[in-house]
Amino acid sequence: MQTGVIVSLALYFILMLGIGIYAWRKSTADSEGYLLGGRSLGPAVTALSAGASDMSGWLLLGLPGALYVSGLVEAWIGIGLFAGALVNWIVVAPRLRRQTEELGDALTIPEYLGNRFPSHAVALRLTSAVIVVVFFTVYTAAGMVGGGKLFATAFGGDYMTGVWVTTGVVLAYTMIGGFLAVSLTDFVQGCIMFAALVLMPLVVMFGPGGSAGESLARVPVEGFLSLSHGLTAIGWLSAVTWGLGYFGQPHIIVRFMAIRSVKEIPTARNIGMAWMGVCLLGAIGLGLAGRAYVERNGLTLADPETIFILLANLLFHPLVTGFLYAALLAAIMSTISSQLLVSSSSLTEDFYRLFLRKQAGEREAVQVGRISVALVALAAIAIAADPDSKVLGLVAHAWAGFGAAFGPMIVLALTWRRMTGAGAVAGLITGALVVIAWIALGWDQSFLGGPGVYEIIPGFIAAWLAIVVTSRSTRESGQADPVHAID
């Protein structure tokens, strides 16, 4: 069996590296090419790249694991995410694509904010870069944990070996090919993930050992198929407000900056939302059907987040199992590569070229970007060294940090004329600090003697209020005013 699996994975790795080499030859001569692909992405690549970089290993590990344990009630996370992604495509995508090009052809989110509010450009770019690097290091570690779990569970190998192998392949094509390599590999990886999430639930229910879904009703978890069983108002709010995080995820919204034109965004949105809907339904079906399959066949599963790996081993030919492992790696690697590149772009454009080498040439900037990718990866590996880490938990914290720090600021910067640079700085810092403090105090686990409140809720509200209050009490001259209707 191992031979067939290894062949499939080897072919997958070769394909990823081949794309990296193609992108290196095509678009890494300057910073715009390396960091933004020359703003040349078509709608399909934009859509699947945004989706694949968003739907990381949590889609095949964390979310099915949560549904495996608690049942359909955990699907509210997916519902909230779908709604948030749709609003993000409608509100943020067209405005960000236009404004980043109009305001100095900004290559990064911090650079856009600096151009939008020039009186506070340095503070915004530096603070944004710090937040990007800190939270993305944690987020990247979540993907590496997924890679380690795959190798340890599927091959009985060493967890850290899996972390290093996963990271090594990602580093190779990201450092070589930059943004275009990341986007093209995301497109391929998105297709693989789509196929796996359609195939797996169907085989689990209708293949050998399945029961056409009949055994779902006999899972020994009360309210397993209920969307409301045991759900409190706070629990529901904490689940659906995951959708708020979309507005502030740099690795997702940077795709909006790279599409060829604003006119192609509706097409990309339709493709992206259709892909996301099918993938979320597949992940939900995988968690529910996987639990029913385990119960029906008297199996044991120590870690619910490995249900995908267990079923891939049991139900498929080795070559198909290798393909399914490749789908899991695709989910993991697509997000890691996007996060590493965004962190690299912030370190290069918003720190190195802003403070250390203002006159750095394009070739030097690209080389610094590659070094930055490696440094962030090493820091993430240190965090991922604990094999007991939970993918969904790490993702939840990083997602909340970005959503609260950047979300309100991005939405208001794109849509509200009266927003000021002082307000932007206040919102950025307030959102990040509230999320960090909420986690440190344990209020995400238990709040006022009741269930925990997801940290994105207080962080997002506090940041929004900080921006509005500070902007209304300050006046600035000379700041850009690109806020107008989208044709």
Automatic annotation (TrEMBL):
<comment type="similarity">
    <text>Belongs to the sodium:solute symporter (SSF) (TC 2.A.21) family.</text>
</comment>
<feature type="transmembrane region" description="Helical">
    <location>
        <begin position="122"/>
        <end position="142"/>
    </location>
</feature>
<feature type="transmembrane region" description="Helical">
    <location>
        <begin position="365"/>
        <end position="385"/>
    </location>
</feature>
<feature type="transmembrane region" description="Helical">
    <location>
        <begin position="162"/>
        <end position="182"/>
    </location>
</feature>
<feature type="transmembrane region" description="Helical">
    <location>
        <begin position="453"/>
        <end position="470"/>
    </location>
</feature>
<keyword id="KW-0997">Cell inner membrane</keyword>
<dbReference type="Pfam" id="PF00474">
    <property type="entry name" value="SSF"/>
</dbReference>
<keyword id="KW-0406">Ion transport</keyword>
<dbReference type="InterPro" id="IPR018212">
    <property type="entry name" value="Na/solute_symporter_CS"/>
</dbReference>
<comment type="function">
    <text>Catalyzes the sodium-dependent uptake of extracellular L-proline.</text>
</comment>
<keyword id="KW-1003">Cell membrane</keyword>
<dbReference type="InterPro" id="IPR001734">
    <property type="entry name" value="Na/solute_symporter"/>
</dbReference>
<feature type="transmembrane region" description="Helical">
    <location>
        <begin position="227"/>
        <end position="247"/>
    </location>
</feature>
<keyword id="KW-0029">Amino-acid transport</keyword>
<feature type="transmembrane region" description="Helical">
    <location>
        <begin position="306"/>
        <end position="332"/>
    </location>
</feature>
<dbReference type="InterPro" id="IPR011851">
    <property type="entry name" value="Na/Pro_symporter"/>
</dbReference>
<feature type="transmembrane region" description="Helical">
    <location>
        <begin position="421"/>
        <end position="441"/>
    </location>
</feature>
<dbReference type="InterPro" id="IPR050277">
    <property type="entry name" value="Sodium:Solute_Symporter"/>
</dbReference>
<keyword id="KW-0915">Sodium</keyword>
<protein>
    <recommendedName>
        <fullName>Sodium/proline symporter</fullName>
    </recommendedName>
</protein>
<keyword id="KW-1133">Transmembrane helix</keyword>
<feature type="transmembrane region" description="Helical">
    <location>
        <begin position="268"/>
        <end position="294"/>
    </location>
</feature>
<dbReference type="InterPro" id="IPR038377">
    <property type="entry name" value="Na/Glc_symporter_sf"/>
</dbReference>
<keyword id="KW-0813">Transport</keyword>
<feature type="transmembrane region" description="Helical">
    <location>
        <begin position="6"/>
        <end position="24"/>
    </location>
</feature>
<keyword id="KW-0812">Transmembrane</keyword>
<feature type="transmembrane region" description="Helical">
    <location>
        <begin position="391"/>
        <end position="414"/>
    </location>
</feature>
<keyword id="KW-0739">Sodium transport</keyword>
<keyword id="KW-0472">Membrane</keyword>
<feature type="transmembrane region" description="Helical">
    <location>
        <begin position="75"/>
        <end position="93"/>
    </location>
</feature>
<keyword id="KW-0769">Symport</keyword>
<feature type="transmembrane region" description="Helical">
    <location>
        <begin position="187"/>
        <end position="207"/>
    </location>
</feature>
